Amino acid sequence: MTKKIALSFLILCTTFSAFAQTFNTAKLDSLFSVLEAKDKYMGSIAISENGKTIFAKTIGKADVAGGKEATSATKYRIGSISKTFTACLIFKAVEEGKLDLNKTIEGYFPAIQNASKITISNLLNHRSGIHSFTDDEDYLSYNTKPISEKEMVALIAKGKTEFEPNSKAEYSNSNYVLLSYILEKIYKKPYALLVDAKIGKPLGLKNTYFGGKTNIANNECYSYTFDGSWQKETETDMSVPMGAGALVSNPADLTKFIEALFAGKIISQKSLDQMITIQDNYGMGIFQVPFYENKGYGHTGGIDGFSSSVSYFPTSKLAIAVASNGNTYDNNQILICALSSYFGKPFKVPSFNTIEVKPEDLDLYVGEYSSPEIPLIITIRKEGNTITAQATGQNAFPLDAVRKDVFEFPLAGIKLEFNTADKQMTLDQGGMKLVMTKK
């Protein structure tokens, strides 16, 4: 549900290499050990190959104040991974003859602008043009309170549209809230029951369900952000995100789910082929996940202080899922380490050691840096005894000094190395190195 710093999406690699036959779990174990020792991450990972778990790890706490440790049974809010479940339910409805992907939505939501032009298919692959309600400035003023379908549809309708239906694609949580309401209308059952009856129970996903108020006694966990110490986040009421982000699960269940999806145990191969057809970077409830020459499919999720990801690489029959309830180190970096360990790629485990830099020395780095290779300007500013970086149109993020002229932002795996003599800065992220020049 939530947005991430755009730079974090630059990291998955596309160069060539050979397939590795062994899985180097030692490096992944090492990463989790340092994350735990440095208190950088709370969460869980599960990796399976051909349906068999080959790695699992959980660190951190489910309840910081109560001192309850997280375990492999801990359940997390999975945010937008819920969309993949919703898309599966829509395709099941199509297969059951209850829905047509080409059907327009004016019969369900006449108040939505362009409803007579927007199809079910457009909602699925984010080509509807409907404004995403989570982008509104007042979203955080109501997201913790229960909301009815009538109220939610009115909020979405008020947002108007961003572009003509099917003219392009743009991510919108509104699309999947509307899809969950459509499912409830055609089945005359709550979305929560549909997820359980059509996906959860048939696949034996005992830890996956529509969320409610967090229940620590039921192996659920609170979420946190870090501000010198772990601070508990507020909880979104799940009536708000519905099929766009209301599910609870854990990595073990998520790997089972995505394996079942690609094994034809949820929807037909014909439906899956439609689901994974990528147009303008979007499938239907799923994205493509490239890693060197390996092509996977999956989805990420973020809600409150939770973040999660699940992906599947069909050629290797490899499923990976991570879920976190608090981190200052990005899930994407953990995935890169996991995939690098599996496919035999280089990956350096961070130490998170920092050095002190005199405030007056920081002035040497301040300025705007650009490169003809990317349409971004990165602005470096001094803030007290540290510096921050801000890419065009993005939030600023703090940088840790790790050695002379080298700074890192571990959450997105970003390293910036300055050459003050030549007025240059090298952006290093996920194996990509880009030299940028100071204006």
TrEMBL record:
Asked if the Swiss-Prot or TrEMBL record annotates the protein with the keyword Hydrolase, the reply is yes
Domain of life here? Bacteria
Gene Ontology molecular function terms on file: hydrolase activity
EC nos: 3.1.1.103
Q: Where is the signal peptide?
A: 1-20
Gene3D superfamilies xref list: DD-peptidase/beta-lactamase superfamily (3.40.710.10)
The record's annotation in InterPro entries points to:
AmpC-like (IPR050491), Beta-lactam-related (IPR001466), Beta-lactam/transpept-like (IPR012338)
Q: Is Signal a UniProt keyword of this protein? A: yes
Q: Which EC class, in a word?
A: hydrolase
Instruction: Write the record's keywords in alphabetical order, separated by commas.
Output: Hydrolase, Signal
Ranges for domain Beta-lactamase-related:
44-329
Q: Please give the start and end residues of each transmembrane region.
A: none
Listed Pfam families? Beta-lactamase (PF00144)
PANTHER family for the chain: D-ALANYL-D-ALANINE CARBOXYPEPTIDASE, D-ALANYL-D-ALANINE-CARBOXYPEPTIDASE/ENDOPEPTIDASE AMPH
- Tell me the protein's name: Serine hydrolase domain-containing protein
Species in which this protein is naturally found: Flavobacterium sedimenticola
